[in-house]
Amino acid sequence: LAKTTQPISMDSYEGQEVNITCSHNNIATNDYITWYQQFPSQGPRFIIQGYKTKVTNEVASLFIPADRKSSTLSLPRVSLSDTAVYYCLVGDDNTNAGKSTFGDGTTLTVKP
Amino acid sequence: EPEVTQTPSHQVTQMGQEVILRCVPISNHLYFYWYRQILGQKVEFLVSFYNNEISEKSEIFDDQFSVERPDGSNFTLKIRSTKLEDSAMYFCASTSYRAGNSPLHFGNGTRLTVT
Known about the structure:
The complex is a heterodimer. By secondary structure, chain A is mostly beta strands. Chain A contains no helices and nine strands. Chain A is globular. Chain B has strands at residues 5-7, 10-13, 19-24, 31-37, 43-50, 53-57, 65-68, 75-79, 88-95, 105-106, 110-114. Chains A and B meet through strand 3, strand 4 and strand 8 of A and strand 5, strand 9 and strand 10 of B.
């Protein structure tokens, strides 16, 4: 499984756009990139997944450059309720999804 | 939206006692998982389960642990003789297919406190 590296923490203010970058230099050809959000005392929650270029859903966008060695989760106009830990995971269609390795994640703190 | 549900939300037990943590995965999912998260630490994979048998397990999942799907809806994790270091949040998850690009759907966990 490709190892991922993320910043340990980030601070932002309400209404700002937040970009969290994840490095995955050893990503394999078949690997997908998946982001999860975790609030205290809750289970991780799926946010978005992508393979290349850009993916957008109702809560976030995911930007993946051509070399796929990194990815950036973009949260538009964050609010206090977006304060959470964000995890970047990499896995392929031959990997047991459940063995996805959760790293340390990025603790995002949104301030008023 | 369908959810994974876990009971109880909090379980307190004495060292050496057996505990059973319960989970109801999303109904049309086929792959089930247990994870552990010690306070302030990473989410750690314990075991995956498919077609009524364990498909993979981690080093943490030793002989003290067992999993079962006793009926068509429940998925349980049993810790036979709890230790202080078993105190953690335990999360159940399910997916509709096995692949690494299958999003995991987590429950909100059971906080296990061993005294």
